[in-house]
Amino acid sequence: MLSSLAAVLFDGFAYGMLLFLLSVGLSVTLGMMNFVNLAHCSFAAVGGYATVTLVNRLGWPFLATLPIAFAAAALVSILLERTLYRRLYRSSDLDQCLLTIGIVFISVAAFAWFYTTEQQSARVPEYLKGSVQFLGVNFAVYRLFLIVFGLATTAILVLLLEQTRFGARVRAAVDNQRMARGLGIDVDRAFMITFALGGGLAGLGGALAIEVIGLDPAFALTYLVYVLIVVAVGGLGSIGGSFAAAAVLGISDMAGKYYFPWLGAFLIYLVMVGLLMWRPAGLFGKR
Amino acid sequence: MRWHPLEIAFWLCTLLPFAVAPSYLSLASQIAITALFALSLDLILGYAGIVSLGHAAFFGFGAYSAGLLSKHYLGEPLTGLLAAAIAAGVLGYALSHVIVRFRHLALIMLTLGFGLLLHEAANSASALTGGADGLQGIKVGTLFGFKFDLYGRTAYAYSLAVLFLCFLICRRIIHSPFGLALRGIRENATRMPAIGAPSRAHLRKAYTIAAVIAGIAGALLTQTTSTVSLEVLSFGRSADVLVILILGGAGRLYGGIIGAIIYLVARDQFSGINPQYWYFWIGLLLVVVVMFLPNGILGGLARFFPRRA
Fold this sequence. Notes:
By secondary structure, chain A is mostly helical. Chain A contains 11 helices and 2 strands. A two-stranded antiparallel sheet of chain A has the order 1-2. Chain A binds chain B through residues 30, 34, 36, 84, 87-88, 91, 93-95, 97-99, 101-110, 112-113, 117, 217, 225, 228-229, 231-232, 236, 262-266, 269-270, 272-273, 276-277, 280-281, and chain B through 45, 51, 53, 98, 101-102, 104-106, 108-110, 112-114, 116-117, 120-121, 123-124, 239, 242-243, 246, 250, 274, 276-277, 279-280, 282-287, 289-291, 294.
């Protein structure tokens, strides 16, 4: 009983780290520009497919493809931001939702065209396979790797946001965009960089997700709900909030699947609706 | 509100399928049902400004209510329609108390969440709903002595009549002071109470009415096809109806109807292509409409035919 609890906590936390990588970028960009970007998971899929292509067709080692996954997703997100998104910053939520859902549909079809609708896999190196035993509980090495990676990313992001001049600009823009502009901060530029960074992190998440939850063209739609839950529950523009929400969501999803399999995803949605009704701005949100 | 000659001509044209295309009558009744569903979304989205990503909740609730009623108790269609309307209305009224308190992302997420919640509930409660296999064994009775047959003659006449009645009601609502107040709330929700229109109470009413109409549309689908599948509650259906309404033009009574005709006829014509690629074109269409035709097809047409003041 206790060991199964430890296993659920561990697996859930690793899953949560994955959700954190997928959603943190959306949280910050939503906080800055109030732009409802439902296509965020499409960026994740771009990263995932970049890794699949490099590993399976060109024989690259898995870890070496991760920077490329990051770069590819960042590039695509910056391209879309420059061409389409920036025209709609002042539009209604509805227009933003529609545009980005349209992009999701296009991306799903495009991935299906190039990579078929089958589940993709990418070979991970031997040293990331298997598991280690500790106090009678099996810990999968890959999930340990995910947790370390997630924690390291969080630390870097927090440092970047709290300690650098760029981070100060971003925080100012999230808190009060007009005031930040008034102080001479180039919000558009800061936003562009943040958007690329967030897209890149999602791409990284997509690449790392292949081994755990797989990758198929519908990825952008399936995980959209999870990412939105993390963002909405964590609160806009809050890295700590996203981290906490992702961890809670990952663990409760794992626990739900393990202890109440007949409920399906019901539990997750119930938790989300309840939390949102209680605190519409999210657990750590200011607005 | 006087009827424009074009409106009368449009409704006369809806009778054409009986004479011109009898083999497409079942498609025509699909269009009428979808148009009714889009009309209901138009009421809250186009007029009251409530963005909903989970409107299929009411459509599906009505569909299951009508299905369960005719499976276990009686198959009389009009009673089923009424029961579905009441059931969806009660659900809509209950949810409206939550919905009107939120805006922006929280609102979008809550409507999405309620939709997904209901979908999962119907999936889990397979003893009642049949789960993923759908509800089987629905026996729909005759309507004034006419049977629902394979050709869909009764189905289309029935759907069209219900659509027209609901349309009349919506048209009346939109042109009433209440409808005007809804548009005011859409434009500025904080200013309207100052001139004597209670925002939240009005939004609750509009949301409940929309839920009733969506429930009726769902019941129509159940009765004309004699099955209910889990798909009636899916996110895909919510997204489709949103696309249809936006394509036609939100905030115009005919937007949803025109959108439904174009969308379903196109899907029927291109049914040969894989659904995956069908969504590619839908996505492209959405991007183009948002970028270049912000008020949909009807909005674009209206620019060429300026109304006389």
